[in-house]
């Protein structure tokens, strides 16, 4: 038995006993294990995050550049009438420009394969150019058009030209024509601005996020206008003025429960109430914003109440002591001090709403929209639903655009969270 169990301490005291040193050693070992577990969890989390971002970047980087082909167009009065250039035969103009580069192509099948080098939207791009400047009729101009998706994939290395011809989307003749255009300096790969400034299209080389970004902006605007004032008002009443009884306790419990309700439930509520009962327009950012506001309200109320609680009671007592009413103390003293925390919670709630997909799918914001919405009543998509649409498309070009859309969405989310961090650090006051 040790000296301690015998009732006698060693000469150096209890800290010199063998039992104490054994317990201290076990405690230090447990602390080291806990640190190792914590570091290991952080390393695993960061590793998975890096894997996610690297996979998205590797698969989506090619969508940020687009293969273009430069052609010389003869805008003849034979195909375009000066009286109404909008109805011109621009398809024939683009095809004549292609045949001019390859006059040896004579058969219909080869000509059809040749025309497939350029995007089907080339004729509409030429039409818009001439309609905006009718003086071009009768002149020869040079225009740059997006290459068709198979040629774009070939240029980016996604299609291996060494693969047998029957197993790839691009024929040997098309590869030869492409190589000729590239040798003549007519092929370029600039940054794909159309990804941000063009709306959706059934052709991958023309599809963009402009409609989805605009739709998300309108929906978030409606969400903010509805949820921010209502959420702050509810938080102020519950925290400062509501009597503490079982009814207010029931309200608080329901608010906390609503924050954990699956988002698809709010989508079903919007479908049943806003669309079926009130008859609001389907696929409109107005309805999407209202549904997202219902989702965001619990988060804003909880964050606002936490911010109000963080204000020291002495602030209220000092305001009341100099003769201010409870309303004046709240509006002139407590609320301004709590506003940084309220804004932080609001932005985080809005960022969560930006990434929601299920409720927007149920109210129809996954429609095929080829133009950005002009207002909150126009049909629209949102960034998450646009990503969902592209992920479900069979064309290979939409694979990279899906990852690019996810990167753009993550960029917006990081930006909104950075704003929340900035507001918290910039306006938080210490007492």
What is the gist of this entry?
By secondary structure, the chain is mostly helical.
How would you describe this protein?
This protein is mainly alpha-helical and 431 residues long. The protein has 3 domains: 14-62; 67-190, no CATH class; 210-427, MetI-like fold (Orthogonal Bundle). 62% of the residues lie in helices and 4% in strands. It has 16 helices and 3 strands. It has helices spanning 18-60, 90-101, 108-115, 122-132, 149-155, 172-183, 194-197, 210-241, 246-258, 263-277, 285-310, 313-321, 326-354, 358-362, 383-391, 397-427; strands at residues 68-74, 140-146, 187-188. Strands 2-1-3 form a 3-stranded antiparallel sheet. Helix 8 (210-241) packs parallel to helix 11 (285-310), helix 12 runs antiparallel to helix 13 (326-354) and helix 15 (383-391) runs antiparallel to helix 16 (397-427). The protein is extended, with a radius of gyration of 32 Å. The chain starts with 17 loop residues before the first helix and ends with a helix.
Keywords summarizing the entry:
431 residues, mainly alpha, MetI-like fold, 3 domains, 16 helices, extended, disordered N terminus
């Amino acid at each position: 038995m040790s000296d301690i169990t015998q009732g006698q301490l060693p000469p150096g005291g209890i800290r010199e006993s063998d039992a104490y040193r054994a317990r201290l050693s076990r405690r230090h070992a447990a602390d080291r294990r806990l640190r190792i577990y914590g570091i290991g969890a952080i390393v695993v989390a960061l590793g998975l995050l890096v894997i996610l971002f690297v996979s998205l970047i590797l698969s989506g980087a090619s969508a940020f550049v687009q293969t273009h082909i430069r052609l010389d167009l003869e805008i003849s009065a034979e195909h375009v009438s000066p009286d109404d250039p909008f109805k011109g035969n621009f398809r024939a103009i683009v095809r004549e420009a292609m045949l001019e580069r390859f006059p040896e192509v004579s058969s219909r099948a080869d000509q059809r394969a040749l025309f497939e080098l350029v995007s089907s939207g080339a004729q509409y791009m030429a039409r818009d150019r001439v309609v905006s400047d009718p003086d071009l009729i009768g002149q020869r101009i040079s225009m740059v058009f997006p290459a068709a998706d198979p040629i774009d994939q070939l240029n980016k290395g996604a299609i291996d030209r060494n693969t047998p011809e029957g197993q790839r989307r691009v024929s040997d003749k098309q590869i030869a024509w492409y190589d000729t255009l590239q040798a003549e300096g007519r092929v370029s790969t600039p940054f794909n601005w159309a990804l941000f400034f063009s709306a959706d299209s059934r052709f991958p080389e023309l599809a963009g996020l402009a409609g989805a970004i605009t739709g998300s902006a309108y929906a978030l605007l409606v969400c903010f206008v509805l949820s921010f004032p209502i959420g702050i008002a509810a938080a102020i009443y519950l925290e400062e003025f509501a009597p503490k009884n079982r009814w207010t306790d029931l309200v608080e419990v329901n608010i906390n429960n609503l924050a954990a309700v699956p988002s698809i439930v709010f989508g079903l509520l919007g479908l049943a109430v806003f669309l079926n009962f009130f008859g609001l327009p389907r696929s409109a950012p107005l309805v999407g914003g209202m549904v997202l506001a219902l989702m965001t309200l619990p988060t804003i109320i909880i964050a606002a109440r936490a911010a109000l609680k963080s204000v020291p009671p002495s602030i209220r007592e000092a305001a009341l002591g100099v003769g201010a009413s409870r309303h004046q103390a709240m509006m002139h003293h407590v609320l301004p001090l709590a506003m940084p925390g309220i804004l932080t919670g609001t932005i985080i709630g809005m960022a969560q709403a930006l990434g929601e997909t299920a409720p927007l799918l149920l109210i129809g914001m996954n429609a095929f929209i080829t133009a950005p919405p002009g207002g909150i009543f126009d049909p629209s998509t949102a960034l998450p639903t646009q990503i969902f649409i592209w992920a479900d498309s069979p064309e290979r070009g939409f694979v990279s655009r899906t990852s690019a859309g996810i990167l753009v969405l993550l960029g917006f989310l990081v930006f909104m969270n950075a704003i929340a961090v900035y507001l918290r650090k910039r306006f938080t006051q210490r007492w």
